Amino acid sequence: MLLWNQVIEILRESILAYAQIFHGSVGAGILVVTFLARLALLPLGIRVARAAGRQQEIMARLQPRLDALKTVHRNNPTRLAQETRQLLTQEGATPLSGLGCVGTLAQLPILIALYSSVQRAASVGGRFLWIRDLAKPDWIVAIVATVITCLASVSGGSPSQNRSLLLTLSAVITIAALAKMAAGVGLYWGLSSLFSAAQGWTVQRLQRREA
């Protein structure tokens, strides 16, 4: 726990150090550190997303055969499980991708630590652009970050009949959360979502080239 707090504190100090470069602007420090951290994670994020996309494509292609197995062995769950496992193994499909699991687990602690450090840095407050106090909520930041979050969902999501509903729920939950959070956290949220959107669009372009 001590090591974890030290990591968060190092990130917080980094934010404040960059803030001094920009004449004491904590908002600028938050954006710079968030940008550098997300840029460092971007290559891994793209690899994980591409691996997940390939697994989704395989599962979509196998779905008719999986449905047929369910019909044939509907009264024999044990045989159904065996046949399903055999088919997935033959086609190289795995419910849990090793790269996906490792990649996600590698990114998660960094993102959580970065979020915690931004919270601490934002509590210092101060002005940034139109924002009067980074320690208090700002509706413009909340709205912009929500729009970017929805764009990130569109760029990385797979086609779904419930996409409109999911986007609506995502927008409502995001803006409700950001409306109560410090504006400094909103800056982090918006920039992180922008990187997620860029990652999604990059993966889509790479997939189209491979097709």
Please sum up the structure shown:
By secondary structure, the chain is an all-alpha fold.
Stretches where pLDDT is under 50 for at least 5 consecutive residues are none
Count of distinct strands = 0
Helical amount: over 70%
Quaternary assembly:
single chain
Number of domains: 1
Structural class: mainly alpha
- Integer-rounded radius of gyration: 21 Å
- The topology string of helices and strands comes to HHHHHHH
**Main sheet makeup:** none
Tell me the overall shape.
elongated
Number of helices: 7
Distance between the termini: 46 Å
What percent of residues are in strands? Answer: under 5%
Mean residue pLDDT: 82
Explain what the structure shows.
- With 211 residues, the chain is mainly alpha-helical.
- The protein has one domain (2-210).
- The chain contains 7 helices and no strands.
- It has helices at 2-21, 26-72, 77-91, 98-122, 139-156, 163-178, 183-210.
- α4 packs antiparallel against α7.
- The model has no long low-confidence stretch (mean pLDDT 82).
Produce the secondary structure layout:
Layout: H1 2-21, H2 26-72, H3 77-91, H4 98-122, H5 139-156, H6 163-178, H7 183-210
Helix pairs in contact: 1-2, 1-4, 2-3, 2-4, 2-7, 4-7, 5-6, 5-7
Keywords:
7 helices, 211 residues, mainly alpha
